[in-house]
Amino acid sequence: MNILFITSSRIGDAVISCGILEALRLQYPQARFTIACGTVAEGVFTRFPALERLIVFEKERFDRHWLRLWSKLVPQVWDIAVDVRGSIITLALAARKRHILKGGRRPGRRYAQLGAALGLAPPPLPVAWTAPEDDAKAATLITEGPVIALAPTANWEGKIWPADRFIKLFYALQAKLPGARAAVFGGPGAMEAALASPVLAALPGAINLVGNLTLPEVAACLRRTVLFVGNDSGLMHLSAAAGTPTLGLFGRSRASEYAPAGPRTAIAVAPGPEGEAPMTGLSVETVTSAAFELLRL
Q1: Is the model's pTM score more than 0.90?
Q2: DSSP per residue over the chain, as a string?
């Protein structure tokens, strides 16, 4: 049985789609999967247990990337084709069953929208897949004692909580968790490093995990932390999918759609209209209180 899964080019959206992907794997244990995703999201799927082929594509002018992807998929007859992107190319493939999810903004949690599109109730939570070598590397990076994961980066300025507030938050948490250390997470590139550097500089002994790990290694490291606090980002979604207690911070993005989905999650939201509130309005006290409640401290 051959199943095609076309998903996002962004890490966060790709992670959110992993819930329905895992549900399909469990429903069809003999199936082999071809997954198509954007370059940045590739690492989300490299450890997927039933993966036969991973097709990575980059966006091109005039949507030529869709034509290139179609040319790679059209020779195969698919038993099931699931298109999270809602692209038109899936209609031009030979498939016995299709699930083409409509694009655009709709009310409700994104992971629940995906589950409903496949008729899954309750909607499956996202998952994160790792391999033994990822877990082994994580064990060398995050050893004994409580470690608090901080993710002060995001893909645009409107989502970013001020760095000095992450620092104050950590010390408030450390007062309740004696001996706790910080692990600072971020993606690759100069911008992510610049956003994380003030937090790393202010927290002696912090573990620097900015831009130097694969996504499965990041997931394995997150599983070894007692708490994740971070901006609305792919890292936030990966943390929730990994099962880490995850506190997501929201201001100029919509928590009603993109709050972290996992077994233990919470949000802290800046006051104001949803999706329009500045992150500077989100106080350290509000975030600290939410973190204490999540950890039941």
Answers
A1: yes
A2: -EEEEE--SSHHHHHHHHHHHHHHHHHSTT-EEEEEEEGGGHHHHTT-TTEEEEEEE---GGGHHHHHHHHHHTTSEESEEEETT--GGGGGSEESSEEE---S--SS-HHHHHHHHTT-SSPPPP-----HHHHHHHHHHS-SS-EEEEE---SSGGGPPPHHHHHHHHHHHHHHSTT-EEEEEE-SSHHHHHHHHHHHHHSTT-EEEES-S-HHHHHHHHHTSSEEEEESSHHHHHHHHHT--EEEEESSS-HHHHS--SSSEEEEE-SSSTTT--GGGS-HHHHHHHHHHHHT-
pLDDT at 178: 93
Give residue limits of the domains in the chain.
Answer: 2-117, 132-295
- CATH topology agreement for domains 2-117 and 132-295: yes
Report whether pLDDT(60) > 80: no
The CATH architecture to which 132-295 belongs is 3-Layer(aba) Sandwich (3.40)
Domain 2-117: assigned CATH number: 3.40.50.2000
pLDDT of res. 281: 98
On the question of pLDDT at 68 being above 70, the answer is: yes
Give CA–CA dist 289/153, Å, rounded.
21
